[in-house]
Specification:
The chain has 465 residues and is of the alpha+beta class. The protein is 36% helix and 18% strand. It has helices at 2-23, 48-53, 58-66, 70-79, 89-93, 98-105, 110-118, 191-207, 241-244, 268-282, 286-294, 296-307, 319-323, 327-331, 335-342, 351-361, 443-454, and strands at residues 43-44, 82-87, 121-122, 140-144, 150-155, 161-163, 166-176, 179-184, 217-218, 223-224, 312-317, 344-345, 363-367, 374-380, 383-386, 393-402, 406-411. Strand 5 (150-155) and strand 6 form a beta hairpin. Helix 1 packs across helix 17, helix 7 packs antiparallel against helix 8 (191-207) and helix 10 (268-282) packs antiparallel against helix 11 (286-294). The longest helix has 22 residues, at 2-23. 39% of the residues are buried. Bound molecules: 2-acetamido-2-deoxy-beta-D-glucopyranose (3 copies). Residues 1-24 form the signal peptide.
């Protein structure tokens, strides 16, 4: 599991990090929790938040969802890099006073739970190399967390790192372009929550209402059960739909089988041929199959990437959609490649993983091989809708081909990147952008290779040589 996951991580972080960074802006953080930020309401599939929800920090992820904090955190990662201190599962399962845990999960104490969780997030990037060193003058750093309380980060003479009183046991455990997660040994509890708890306990002892029973644990998921708070009739459910769903597939990309060995000996080319064959047999995708057959260079590039252990999801427009393309759009040199690259996502996604993601987050942006353009997805009519406005397309034929490395999803439209508009003044009408006319096949990989070299990782990507 570790191995193949690394492959996916490598591709998204290394290729796309510089792009994400260049999009970043904004002054130093303040506790940005109150009030929605003006972020676009979309989340990148390679966001640290998505990674957290799909990580082995399942107890923390569960609490974040129970606390209805996803939107808040999404807004924060939309404008800031974050550092998350994630208590290991055992710290939340067994290491916690049951009474305190019960207190946190009572609907009436939602605010305390939120404060507690936001205390684990700081709106800046602090990875292990930036962690204060014991010998340095500044051997302690203070950071204001999203809960507005302060945390101190220290380096000990023993070389250990601590945040307040919790040891960091897995530094840099999860790193994404917009944030880093450090595994810590125990839960961090801000003073204000301790006080809330004590007040509540005193009240309880006064009224002599003894809490009964331990927190209820769902035997299937080993997670705490908690009913959703009541909402006024007609309003959308408070808890993410995830809570209503049967425990099932994670929202993150379905795991792809890892490279066959240390040297990545997939036969990517035969996989590509295989999926083109599948498209032809499936029916309704002949145009696309044709393009892929004709553009042998594109097919072989895909094959090579797959051979090297990369994964790709192809959003395949069906024949009806392709028929709507004008000859102009297709005959410009390089246009078919550009179109195709925009339909390739460098992640292994299935219909299920994408649907779960859009259901949970509303809008999700996927990187495409047409840098730096992303394709936006959202839930619509019980399916996944890609793109915006006139240029949108629905997931039409799910999972036409899925072999763990290549996934092909049929869609009923051809997608074009939305023209770059000033972030502040989004024009309401979005039109399909004109296809870049210059022949640019290979430029994307070239760019990716340059970045990889900058990260001294080109050995993982032999196409670069
Ligand atoms: C995120 O961190 C990178 C450096 O790692 C920086 O260039 C970028 O500006 C940061 N983004 C935000 C929103 O602060
Ligand atoms: C920590 O982040 C900086 C960029 O902010 C990066 O240059 C450095 O390599 C990172 N260190 C580790 C150990 O990941
Ligand atoms: C692919 O090539 C064949 C033969 O050269 C040609 O007839 C067909 O129109 C091409 N298809 C596309 C989509 O370019």
């Amino acid at each position: 599991m570790g191995v193949h996951f690394c492959g996916i991580v490598t591709i998204s972080v290394l290729i796309f990090a510089p792009i994400c960074l260049s999009l970043a802006d904004g002054p130093a953080a303040t506790a940005a929790v109150a009030g929605r930020s003006s972020s676009s309401g979309q989340i990148n599939s390679n966001s640290v938040l998505v990674a957290l929800l799909d990580s082995h920090y399942t107890e923390l992820a569960e609490l974040v969802e129970k606390a209805i904090l996803l939107q808040t955190l999404e807004d924060v990662v939309g404008t800031h890099n974050v550092t998350i201190f994630a208590p290991k599962n055992e710290a939340l399962e067994r290491g916690l006073d049951p009474e305190f845990k019960r207190f946190l999960l009572e609907p009436g104490n939602l605010k305390s739970l939120q404060t507690l969780l936001l205390f684990h997030v700081i709106p800046t990037w602090v990875n292990s190399s930036e962690w204060p060193d014991h010998d340095s003058i500044e051997s302690t750093q203070h950071h204001v967390t999203l809960s507005s309380d302060k945390l101190s980060l220290k380096g000990l003479p023993s070389g250990e790192r601590v945040v307040d009183s919790a040891k960091v046991i897995r530094p840099d455990d999860i790193v994404r372009p917009d944030g880093v997660i450090h595994g810590i040994e125990r839960l961090l509890v801000p003073q204000s929550v301790v006080e809330d708890f004590n007040r509540r306990r005193n009240l309880q002892s006064i009224s002599a209402v003894l809490p009964t029973g331990a927190p209820e644990v769902d035997p299937r998921t080993h997670r705490l059960k908690k009913p959703a708070p009541a909402v006024p009739a007609g309003s959308p459910p408070v808890l993410p739909i995830y809570d209503a769903m049967a425990p099932g597939p994670a929202l993150a990309p379905a795991p792809a089988p890892g490279p066959g060995g240390p040297h990545h000996h997939f036969d990517g080319m035969s996989q590509v041929k295989d999926f083109i064959q599948t498209l032809l047999h499936y029916g309704g995708y002949n145009e696309l199959a044709d393009i892929l057959v004709n553009l042998t260079s594109l097919a072989s590039e895909m094959g090579r990437l797959v051979s090297e252990g990369y994964v790709v999801t192809v959003l395949a427009p069906n024949d009806e959609a392709m028929a709507k393309l004008t000859t102009d759009q297709l005959s410009e040199p390089g246009a078919p490649e550009q179109i195709m690259y925009y339909h390739m996502i460098p992640e292994y996604q299935t219909e299920e993983s994408m649907y779960n993601a859009v259901r949970r987050f509303g809008k999700v942006r996927y990187d495409t091989l047409r840098l730096p353009h992303k394709v936006m997805a959202e839930e619509a009519d019980g399916s996944v809708k890609f793109g915006q406005g006139d240029g949108s397309a629905y997931l039409f034929d799910p999972d036409i081909y899925t072999d763990g490395r290549i996934s092909v999803q049929g869609i009923d439209g051809v997608l074009f990147p939305v023209e770059e508009v000033k972030v502040t003044e989004m024009t309401t009408k979005t039109r399909p952008a004109k296809v870049v006319s210059k022949p640019r096949r290979g430029k994307l990989l070239e760019a990716a290779c340059q970045m990889l070299r900058a990260f001294a990782q080109d050995s993982r990507f032999t196409t670069c040589q």
